[in-house]
Automatic annotation (TrEMBL):
Entry keyword annotation includes Signal: yes
Organismal lineage: Bacteria, Pseudomonadati, Pseudomonadota, Betaproteobacteria, Burkholderiales
PANTHER family (UniProt xref): AMINO ACID ABC TRANSPORTER SUBSTRATE-BINDING PAAT FAMILY PROTEIN (PTHR35936:SF6), MEMBRANE-BOUND LYTIC MUREIN TRANSGLYCOSYLASE F (PTHR35936)
InterPro entries, per the entry: Solute-binding_3/MltF_N (IPR001638)
Signal sequence region: 1-18
Identification of the protein by name: Substrate-binding periplasmic protein
Record bears the keyword Signal: yes
Length: 247
């Protein structure tokens, strides 16, 4: 793939990026870390990466951002080739059977737990999490790869629509533990002034990179062009700087 990418650059030179290309996409609803267009200071990490791609390749444009759809709908749109690209998705074997991914990692999320500040238990393994879930189910975001990961580890779960809903249930005592992405949970805890009520666990259960997902039949030249833009953002430190902005 890299050989083909650099061959394309050598053959087309500056004209490669000058050619107009418009790709269909969408925004994920219910995930303000990824997409929060009403917030002028932090409009969403994935939205900012998308805009950065457009800046480094001025001939490349994305349409469809007026669509704000839940994760399950994003997956259907990709699998049915009704969008061309989506920023950002985790990989899983099931997903990789349905669509492709550009090879450049956009940012990395860490799997952590959140508990009430007065809960002194340290949950350091999935076995301990499974045991704790016997009294109260562990909250996890609905339809995510994390939910399937916990089920496979014999953790009893309750799926919720958003981190905000999960945090409200935790503070009300309707659950004892949330399992989720550090960057999302930290954002919601800070935004809702819950730092004195809740705490993140000390253990990172897993680290996973987020990627640009592509419809299964996207032309190889389009994928190569997107990859070129992302590699430039990676090389120039833009992806790292944007990630740090949202942590």
């Amino acid at each position: 793939m890299l050989h083909r990418l650099w061959l394309l650059i050598a053959l087309l030179g500056p004209c490669a990026q000058a050619q107009e290309l418009t790709l269909r996409t969408a925004q994920q609803s219910g995930s303000v870390v990824k997409y929060d267009p009403d917030n002028k200071l932090r409009p969403g990490l994935c939205l900012e990466i998308l805009r950065a791609v457009e800046r480094v390749d001025p001939g490349l444009h994305f349409t469809g951002l007026e669509q704000r759809v839940p994760l399950k709908r994003v997956e259907r749109l990709l699998a049915e080739s009704r969008v061309d690209a989506f920023f950002c998705l985790l990989k899983s074997p099931e997903r990789e059977r349905q669509w492709r991914y550009a090879p450049v990692p956009l940012y990395t999320i860490r799997h952590v737990v959140v508990q009430r500040a007065g809960d002194s238990r340290d949950i350091d393994t999935l076995e301990q999490l499974s045991q704790a879930s016997r009294s109260k189910r562990v909250l996890v975001m609905r339809g995510t790869a994390m939910a399937r990961h916990l089920v496979n580890a014999s953790v009893a779960i309750a799926e919720v629509a958003s981190e905000r809903e999960a945090l409200q249930m935790l503070t009300m005592g309707r659950a004892d533990i949330i399992y989720g992405q550090d960057i999302n949970l930290q954002r919601h805890i800070a935004d809702h002034h819950m730092n004195d009520k809740l705490r993140l666990g000390r253990t990172v259960f897993q680290e996973e990179p987020q990627y640009l997902a592509l419809r299964p039949d996207l032309p190889a030249t389009h994928e190569e062009r997107l990859t070129l833009a992302l590699r430039r953002l990676e090389r120039d430190g833009v992806l790292r700087q944007l990630t740090e902005k949202y942590r």
